[in-house]
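# step 3/5: fold
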Amino acid sequence: MRCWRWWHTVGILAGLTIVDAQTELHLATTVPNASECFSLDSASTAENERVSPEPVDSSLLAELYATISSQQSASYQLAMQSVSNEPAATAYQNSADSATDEPLSSAEEPEHSGHRDARSLKDRFNYASGDCAAVVLKANREARGTTAILNSKKDQYMLNECSARNKHVVVELCDDILIDTFVLGNYEFFSSTFKDIMVYASDRYPPKNNKWTFIGHFQGTNSRDAQVFPVRDPKIWAKYILIEFTTHYGREFYCPLTVFKVYGATQMEQYRKEEEEEDMQEPATLTVDAL
């Protein structure tokens, strides 16, 4: 009867109660050596009478519970070990640590940070808009939905894995301009936001000798809105702009980009601006000569 108590204990732990002779007969015919654990009465089997199990031995129950617990613990440790050895997870964690924890050297400190309200630029023309035929020429291979940054829809975005190396995007602007301002923004929750940004420009693509003109190193804030970055020295008339995302905030899996806008002055606008400045200086010169 010790075997009967053992099988009954297994049934209790499994959420099943062995209560009739048919169940005993099924276990006896399907489980190896189970027939030794039951003594079936043919008369009771025919009449399908209920069998009253003997009280369960508490020491046997404790022994069986300890065995099952040790097996579950071993399975859990094995599963955790297989997850920790997964190369993709390890690579992503290492990349996230290096992207967020390593401080920049003094030579790499950003020149500007974006704090200005983007609404102040609503009356200016965006030269990185799809409406004026701006085009995304290139991006890292992990990037998806790159053309979304050329429209004004807040529910569309360029999606990048934060663990991707060399995250960047190259955009052909609508016209050759002197860049004075650009805007970047991420509106997506449960995602990481860009931090350190390197900006380059060129008047041709590919650039001559594959060398881009460095515009500046910028640093964004950890916020879910459009961030404005003024450019102090545009250096060249730019037709193409390259944005590199070197670090990011947080440890989320995705680093999306929702907003990308570029503002500046065309050659004609710059010529008129210089003429106006000269005209404003002429009256002052005449007044000094008259004296």
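# step 4/5: annotate
Residues 4-32, 34-49, 79-107 have pLDDT under 50 and may be disordered.
# step 5/5: archive (pending)
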